[in-house]
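Inverse folding, one chain.
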């Protein structure tokens, strides 16, 4: 889209952001309303769009945890070394064969979809920008500070030592949120054991100071874009 000086003069980004946010319907609400053109607030500056697509791609480290299912000290040392390398060079890594049942993963994905595709009036009860709420649903946590908005809606569940009351979760995905959080906590405990060993500490060191009690779950939803050919939208 070519932006003219007249376009710039008529464009009040702050008011458009506020109007979008106050609908509490997110990007899904735009799609449901039949929008045929991507609103200006979602368009990236041209220089950002071009540079982001010119950057190279790399493969992040993938660590197979399957070897931990058997008592094999040699295999465990190999995995600890992989964690060390990934942490030092990347700062993060992907894990496979973690033991979370595929049925749980699929049901969690379905739960995310169910939440975002339910009636807008039901979702509005959870729409907030208050991070202290048990579950935060909105579109773009950095809506008012980012140079452009992303074409997605998100719910976030975050807690530290004291988990929230499951009764505060949306009923449409309450059961799977509880099950998924239990499964990911188990994996968190294992990962903190490995990270402790990476640093030459007792395997229980990080878990002993409650590092594994924090949890963050994000459920992103990307509605169909009315202009999928556009290079200015993520």
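Residues assigned per position:
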């Amino acid at each position: 889209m070519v932006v003219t000086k007249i376009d710039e003069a008529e464009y009040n980004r702050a008011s458009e952001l506020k109007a979008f946010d106050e609908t509490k319907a997110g990007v899904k609400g735009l799609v449901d309303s039949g929008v045929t053109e991507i609103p200006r607030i979602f368009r990236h500056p041209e220089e950002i769009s071009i540079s982001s697509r010119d950057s190279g791609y790399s493969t992040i480290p993938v660590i197979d945890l399957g070897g931990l299912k058997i008592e094999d000290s040699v295999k465990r040392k190999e995995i600890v070394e992989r964690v060390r390398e990934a942490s030092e060079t990347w700062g993060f890594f992907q894990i496979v064969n973690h033991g979370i049942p595929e049925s749980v993963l699929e049901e969690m994905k379905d739960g995310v979809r169910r939440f975002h595709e339910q009636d807008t009036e039901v979702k509005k009860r959870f729409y907030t920008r208050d991070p202290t709420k048990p579950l935060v649903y909105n579109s773009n946590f950095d809506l008012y500070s980012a140079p452009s908005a992303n074409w997605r809606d998100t719910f976030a569940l975050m807690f530290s030592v004291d988990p929230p009351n499951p009764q505060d979760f949306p009923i449409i995905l309450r059961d799977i949120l509880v099950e998924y959080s239990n499964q990911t906590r188990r994996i968190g405990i294992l990962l903190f054991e490995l990270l402790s060993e990476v640093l030459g500490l007792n395997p229980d060191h990080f878990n002993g100071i409650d590092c594994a009690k924090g949890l963050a779950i994000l459920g992103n939803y990307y509605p169909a874009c009315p202009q999928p050919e556009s290079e200015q939208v993520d």
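Residues 5-57+101-221 form a domain with the Jelly Rolls fold (CATH 2.60.120.330). Residues 174-198 form the longest helix (25 residues).
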